[in-house]
Every structure is written in C-alpha cells, then in structure tokens.
Amino acid sequence: MIIIRITLGIIFMSVTALITGSLKAYNWMRKDRDGKGGTIINISSIVALYQSPLMPVYSATKSAVLQFSNCLGKTEIFSRTDVRVITICFGVTDTNLIRGRVECIDKELEEKLLVALQKFPTQSIDSAVQGLLTAFESGTSGSTWLITTNKPAEDITKNVDKAYEILRQGVF
Ligand SMILES: NC(=O)C1=CN([C@@H]2O[C@H](COP(=O)(O)OP(=O)(O)OC[C@H]3O[C@@H](n4cnc5c(N)ncnc54)[C@H](O)[C@@H]3O)[C@@H](O)[C@H]2O)C=CC1
Ligand SMILES: CCCCCC(=O)CC\C=C/C=C/C=C/[C@@H](O)[C@@H](O)CCCC(=O)O
C-alpha cells in the first residue's frame, strides 16, 4: 500500500536516520572518548508542540526528534561529553516540502492539511536560517527553540520542561 511505503519512508528519514546519524556524530565528538566536543542541531517541527489529526505519522516522528534530542542533550550527559544537542521546532517554512503534494493517510485529511498549510503564516528560509544561527550561538545543551512566522528564535525550553512536569505527574 502506498501509505505504508510513505509512512516507512518518513519514519526512516526523520527518526531512524536522524538518531543513527546523531549517535554517530555524538560518539565521534564526545570528549570522554578522545573527541573535541561539538554541537548537534536536530530539526523537529511545531507539530511536535501540539496534537493534530492531520499528519499523525509526521507528527510522531517530530515528537520523537524532540524527545530524543532533549534527552541526549541533558546536563548529566553534556557535562561528561561536551556534545551540545539543540532542537529546533520550525513553523511552516517556504521550502519545497510544502510546495509539493503532501500525501496524508486519507483524502479528507489531505484536503484539511492543504487548507491548514495555506492558512498558517509561512516564514521565509532566511528567517528560519537566522533563527537557527541564533539557537546555535545561544542555545544550551538540551534546549528547544521555536522558529516560526518570521519572528526571532524563541528559547521554549522552559515550556517543554513544564509540559513534561505535568505529564510525569503520577508516574513516580
Ligand atoms: N518546510 C517546513 O515547513 C518545515 C520543515 N521542517 C523540517 O525541516 C527539514 C528540512 O525540510 P525542508 O528543507 O523544508 O524540505 P525540502 O524538501 O525543501 O528539503 C529536503 C532536502 O533533503 C534532501 N533529501 C531528501 N532525502 C534525502 C536523503 N535520503 N539523503 C540526503 N538528502 C535528502 C532533498 O533533496 C532536499 O534537498 C525536514 O526535517 C522537515 O521536516 C520542519 C518544520 C517545518
Ligand atoms: C499545519 C501543519 C504545520 C506543519 C509544519 C511542518 O512541519 C511542515 C510540514 C509540511 C509537510 C509535511 C509533510 C509530511 C509528509 C508525510 O508525513 C506524509 O506524506 C506521510 C503520511 C501522513 C502522516 O504524516 O501522517
């Protein structure tokens, strides 16, 4: 089925390749294994910051990117390895990704997504890159940055921490 192929593709690209690539770089750079330290910047999305029915697969992959990168960048690890891990949540950005046809799990969702993508303000590539550079210059390890709607990059680490404080209630 086409959707299985697309789904496996997006999971492979956004999760499997990102995690294996990050860990390769991580092990190469980590100071406690004779590396020189360094920075990993992983790209998530605004879809990791809210729950929408439009793209359950894509949203799941971007949430995985956020959680993996936040956890890998935690101080307990960073203090030993000097490998800083930063996560970027981009809003809709004017690239080929949103220009091409976006296949969803059914036609109804695809139509809703097209409307959403047209309605949601699209930021320029320049603004997205400027925001990424700000995060690179200022971001601490394990931080999350919201870069959307041509606004300056915003460090939303505290929001993510608060969200997980709520989610962990009753767990321990
Ligand atoms: N454009 C947007 O609105 C947003 C994009 N993002 C994320 O930003 C990242 C980049 O997306 P865009 O630049 O917008 O997409 P894009 O489609 O414009 O660019 C993707 C690039 O990756 C290359 N590529 C595809 N498969 C590859 C592979 N197997 N190996 C090496 N290169 C490959 C393509 O040739 C293309 O140049 C993605 O992770 C996307 O999910 C996140 C939020 C919003
Ligand atoms: C209003 C939504 C804002 C989204 C901001 C972004 O991250 C841009 C995403 C733009 C396109 C995403 C394409 C994703 C494609 C695949 O996931 C999809 O074709 C696979 C199956 C559907 C699914 O992801 O559930």
From TrEMBL:
<keyword id="KW-0560">Oxidoreductase</keyword>
<dbReference type="InterPro" id="IPR002347">
    <property type="entry name" value="SDR_fam"/>
</dbReference>
<dbReference type="InterPro" id="IPR036291">
    <property type="entry name" value="NAD(P)-bd_dom_sf"/>
</dbReference>
<dbReference type="InterPro" id="IPR020904">
    <property type="entry name" value="Sc_DH/Rdtase_CS"/>
</dbReference>
<dbReference type="GO" id="GO:0016404">
    <property type="term" value="F:15-hydroxyprostaglandin dehydrogenase (NAD+) activity"/>
</dbReference>
<keyword id="KW-0472">Membrane</keyword>
<keyword id="KW-0812">Transmembrane</keyword>
<feature type="transmembrane region" description="Helical">
    <location>
        <begin position="6"/>
        <end position="26"/>
    </location>
</feature>
<protein>
    <recommendedName>
        <fullName>15-hydroxyprostaglandin dehydrogenase [NAD(+)]</fullName>
        <ecNumber>1.1.1.141</ecNumber>
        <ecNumber>1.1.1.232</ecNumber>
    </recommendedName>
</protein>
<dbReference type="GO" id="GO:0047034">
    <property type="term" value="F:15-hydroxyicosatetraenoate dehydrogenase activity"/>
</dbReference>
<dbReference type="Pfam" id="PF00106">
    <property type="entry name" value="adh_short"/>
</dbReference>
<keyword id="KW-1133">Transmembrane helix</keyword>
<comment type="function">
    <text>Catalyzes the NAD-dependent dehydrogenation (oxidation) of a broad array of hydroxylated polyunsaturated fatty acids (mainly eicosanoids and docosanoids, including prostaglandins, lipoxins and resolvins), yielding their corresponding keto (oxo) metabolites. Decreases the levels of the pro-proliferative prostaglandins such as prostaglandin E2 (whose activity is increased in cancer because of an increase in the expression of cyclooxygenase 2) and generates oxo-fatty acid products that can profoundly influence cell function by abrogating pro-inflammatory cytokine expression.</text>
</comment>
<dbReference type="GO" id="GO:0005737">
    <property type="term" value="C:cytoplasm"/>
</dbReference>
<comment type="similarity">
    <text>Belongs to the short-chain dehydrogenases/reductases (SDR) family.</text>
</comment>
